[in-house]
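Whether sequence alone determines local backbone shape is best considered at the level of individual chains. Part of our work consisted of pairing the sequence of a single chain with a tokenised description of its backbone. This step matters because it turns folding into a mapping between discrete strings. For completeness, the protein is quoted in full, as a sequence line and a line of structure tokens:

_____
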Amino acid sequence: MKCSPLFAGILMLFSSCEHKDLCFDHDVHAPKSEVRIEAQYEKEWQYIHGNAPDWKNYPAWQESFGMEYDDLRPEIPGGLRVQVYNADGSGDIINVAPEGNVVYMRPGKHSLLFYNNDTEYIVFNEMHSFTSAKATTRTRTRSSYLGNSYMEPASENTVNQPDMLYGSYMDSYVAEPSTETDVIPVVMQPLVFTYLVRYEFSRGVEYVSLARGALAGMAQAVWLNSGQTSGEEATVLYDCTVEDFGAQALVRSFGIPGFPNGPYGARAGRKYGLNLEVRLKNGKIKSFDFDVTDQVAVHPQGGVIVVKGIEISDEEGTEGGSGFDVDVEDWGDYEDIELPL
């Protein structure tokens, strides 16, 4: 069956996914069922599992981290996409307002995926089937990052932080021809989580001009229908802010690999590494590696990671003078590169 140029253009415009096997239902005379999507969003930046610290009720949060816990909650997205998988193998893609709207479906049984359509770095793959549909993120490289010394000497992909992603799924919905509008309430759950990463210096922070980091051992992808992360690992690269205590970053991730979107334990044996790279005011670049396995293992879906005792000596900080301009935020030959798809 051949799609019209108009609908094919809409598909290319509104979708960054692969839809090789999906085709719009373009029979305008076919009967339709009117359905109202009503979406609500769980604006959580982390989920607590097992014996992890209850950061939401941590009494000294404001004093310890200089912000409110609720300040880290994600915003409601700019738009909602409804991906309809019809019983005959065809499919439809419908874009609506984030809170939902009235949509029209063919009568019959469908499977439905819901996710926000306003992402920049998210890459959707294998969208022809609701069982294989998953999200990953774009590759990002950093010439000065050669891996983490605490991790296995394997070549993990280095990637951008994913955008905030919400998702929901209905395995079976039967649209009935009717003069009344059916209502589908949808709870959009987070598929991307945030780690508050703090690098606390015991000496020499006054010599730091720029800082950036890498969190190794994170999940490379997440399945949209279940919220489970893939087993493949990736290193998330990110920039930091320089603070009076050291450096800090809010790092988005799919969470740890092979983890269900629910209250299950993390797999033993995995390791997680943290890196900090700083450019000093004299132009020197210095790198630090940390083993954060214990902290990340109890925070499979967002949380707080703190490393302490970082030092830069006076000799390192003053060697060669202060020729580097502190006001110029430029890594020079060590800039990150975002690779095209």
Notes: The helical segments are 5-14, 61-65, 293-297, 314-318. The first strand starts at residue 33 and ends at 41.
